[in-house]
Automatic annotation (TrEMBL):
<dbReference type="InterPro" id="IPR005031">
    <property type="entry name" value="COQ10_START"/>
</dbReference>
<dbReference type="InterPro" id="IPR023393">
    <property type="entry name" value="START-like_dom_sf"/>
</dbReference>
<feature type="domain" description="Coenzyme Q-binding protein COQ10 START">
    <location>
        <begin position="11"/>
        <end position="110"/>
    </location>
</feature>
<protein>
    <recommendedName>
        <fullName>Coenzyme Q-binding protein COQ10 START domain-containing protein</fullName>
    </recommendedName>
</protein>
<dbReference type="Pfam" id="PF03364">
    <property type="entry name" value="Polyketide_cyc"/>
</dbReference>
<dbReference type="InterPro" id="IPR047137">
    <property type="entry name" value="ORF3"/>
</dbReference>
Amino acid sequence: MTRTLMARIHVAAPIDETYRQWAQVEAFPRFIDTVTAVRRIDDVRSRWTISVGGFVDDIYVDVVEQVAPDRLVWQSTDGVVHNGRVELAPEGAGTWVTLRMAWDIEGVADGSEMADAHLQRALEGFKSGLEADALATGGDAVEDRSLAS
């Protein structure tokens, strides 16, 4: 059974920089711990190693929609059914990030509340890394308006 998870957070970075970071799918393992490795094959396709509830697999994932700087959509093309979508919306000097991900892995319980909290932690990791990079390069921090879903 496929379950779609959703989380939302405000980051202190402009939308263009936020989008650039999301478009680097090979960086996903730094903040999404169910994605343990990503190897980019070309501009569209990458090979992901995933680990969910003790289940480990390698899957091909294609970016199926890129509308810079508003959204990025991806989906698996073999094996485990997975898709994800990140939508960005500017607010002042910052950006709202909404992440939706769906997994369908036979025999793996999703633990609904834990799964949503897990996705929120992934966004918090993304936010921390992005804002630390902005401060290190002299970017301006904006007011933190994090919102857990």
